[in-house]
Amino acid sequence: MGIGLVDPILPAIAESLEATPTETEMLFTSYLLVTGLAMFGTSWVSSRLGAKKTLLIGLGIIVVFAAAAGLSQNVESIIGFRAGWGLGNALFISTALATIVGAAAGGSASAIILYEAALGLGIAIGPLLGGLLGHLSWRGPFLGTAALMAVGLIAIIVFLNDDADASGAGRPEPTRLSAPLRALRQPALAVLAGASLFYNIGFFVLLAYSPFPLGFDALGLGFTFFGWGVALAVTSVFLAPALTARMRRTTVLGIALPTLAAVLVAGGFAIDEPGWLVVCIVVGGLVLGVLNTVLTECVMEATDLQRSVASSAYSAVRFLGGAVAPPAAAELARLIAPSAPYFAAAGSVLVAFLIVLFGHRALRRVNGAPEPAAVEAEAITVGDAA
């Protein structure tokens, strides 16, 4: 739920704290930049501390910095606290799924089904709750996130056993700090990371810039991105696995990336029609759900590297791409036209498509058999945790 809780209050923050749209978009940049950089080291940390401690540290950091953001008096402070929040986010999302599968008492398959359902529900409800809380005050979603993460932290302390007891296999083999950077030397992983960098620019223009041209209040934005979250969750959990069971993963990417570019172009033309722009945002969510899952599935299959290392390397580059997009979109809107960010984002997504197209030889391995349930859920986790 914490993923989309803050999105509906961006215009309210800009108005209440007398910040420009570009300054407000830096809330995403500081968060994503630190998340991306920290992802290079999360596999090193979790392999030494163990999953439970890593989860608790990550959640504890989020609680502290989300609460501090909610109590801030200026946008500069919020930007700084969002950076600390990003560190906690990196530690949490890199460890969550492995812990859940390892701790399953009634079999991993049933646990994964419940987990996917909870994840999808959270992605959808987060923006709606953010809109409801933001309707009262822009501070509400920040404090709401802190409260939600505190509940998660307490639940882990009370219900999750120690690592060895939960997994039955003890801690994983410690990894080298340089492992994710070295992983990017693999051609397949490099192609996927490059494509994800440009794809994520489109993702975050749609997510982080759209609240400004829509012109809705916090409640209206909450309902809009509730629809976006439902669309993304449904296609992540149901449509993406169905497509990859029938088509090669690279084929799915070759269809979905140009489709997303077309949706972004449509959003640019609908910039003065809020109703049509809402439609573009929700349809974009449908495509994003497929792309998030399939791209991360490809990462899981692309190399013989430890999955946590490959995921950390890929996610680090992906989040860095997302960090660039929000303030760049705001500046394009200021310097050129409100529609310019959507057209630029469409171009960026097409670059991602060309990277996949021309790198197809390096991606032969990703077109293997459908993933087992545990890996499918891992793809959904990492893909939707942006």
From TrEMBL:
Superkingdom of the source species: Bacteria
InterPro entries referenced in this protein's UniProt entry, alphabetically: MFS (IPR011701), MFS_dom (IPR020846), MFS_trans_sf (IPR036259), Tet-R_TetA/multi-R_MdtG-like (IPR001958), YfmO-like (IPR053200)
Transmembrane segments: 26-47, 54-71, 83-105, 112-136, 142-161, 188-212, 218-240, 252-270, 276-295, 316-336, 342-359
Domain Major facilitator superfamily (MFS) profile: 1-364
Places the protein is found: Cell membrane
GO terms of molecular function: transmembrane transporter activity
GO CC annotations on file: plasma membrane
Pfam families from the UniProt entry: MFS_1
Nucleus among keywords: no
Membrane topology summary: Multi-pass membrane protein
Signal peptide: none
Annotated keywords: Membrane, Transmembrane, Transmembrane helix
PANTHER family: MULTIDRUG EFFLUX PROTEIN YFMO
Protein name per UniProt: MFS transporter
